[in-house]
């Protein structure tokens, strides 16, 4: 069942884009951009950001959003570590905060909550930006190799 879903929702759209003439280079850039944006701490905004960047850079929106959607579970896993370490580098202590404490902070002093979490979020974005550089290089090289292989198979 998983294999059918994977073929239908991942492989088929990517093959379709390659068949329509997208170069392996463009596909690799699109997939890399989608993965990088998808791993950012911008939960809920990645599809919009990814699509806008694709339009600005002339990349394939479908390919980028396929990889964006594929990394979404990982984004949820890395969000809290990004926020925790982002808070650390920005001088905000987020240790020991649970859902109840978070709710009471929001209700009792919204501005303090926004300042604290805003700083932690900025720190999370900085960490993500730094971590994205080597990840983007590795992802691009891997995707380009895979797209060249798939492109050769489609040409046969």
Low-confidence stretches: none
Number of helices: 7
Instruction: Calculate the terminal CA-CA distance, rounded to whole Å.
Output: 28 Å
- Report the biggest beta sheet as strand number plus sense, adding barrel if it closes: none
Which band does the percent of strand residues land in? under 5%
Shape annotation: elongated
Helix content: over 70%
**Mean of all residue-level pLDDT scores:** 86
Radius of gyration: 19 Å
What is the number of strand segments? 0
Structural class estimated from helices and strands: mainly alpha
Number of domains: 1
Strand and helix order:
HHHHHHH
Transmembrane segments: 33-57, 69-86, 120-143
Keywords: Membrane, Transmembrane, Transmembrane helix
Domain DUF2062: 21-148
Features:
about 160 residues, mainly alpha, about 85% helix
């Amino acid at each position: 069942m998983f294999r059918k879903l994977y073929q239908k929702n991942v492989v088929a759209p990517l093959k379709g884009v390659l068949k329509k003439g997208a170069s392996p280079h463009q596909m690799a850039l699109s997939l890399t951009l989608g993965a990088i944006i998808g791993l950012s701490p911008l939960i809920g905004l990645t599809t919009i950001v990814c699509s806008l960047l694709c339009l600005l850079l002339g990349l394939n929106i479908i390919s980028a959003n396929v990889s964006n959607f594929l990394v979404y579970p990982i984004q949820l896993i890395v969000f809290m570590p990004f926020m925790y370490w982002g808070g650390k580098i920005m001088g905000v202590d987020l240790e020991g905060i649970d859902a109840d404490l978070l709710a009471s902070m929001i209700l009792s002093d919204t501005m303090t909550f926004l300042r604290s979490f805003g700083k932690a979020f900025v720190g999370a974005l900085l960490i993500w930006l730094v971590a994205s550089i080597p990840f983007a290089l590795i992802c691009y090289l891997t995707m380009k190799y895979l797209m060249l292989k798939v492109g050769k198979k489609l040409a046969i």
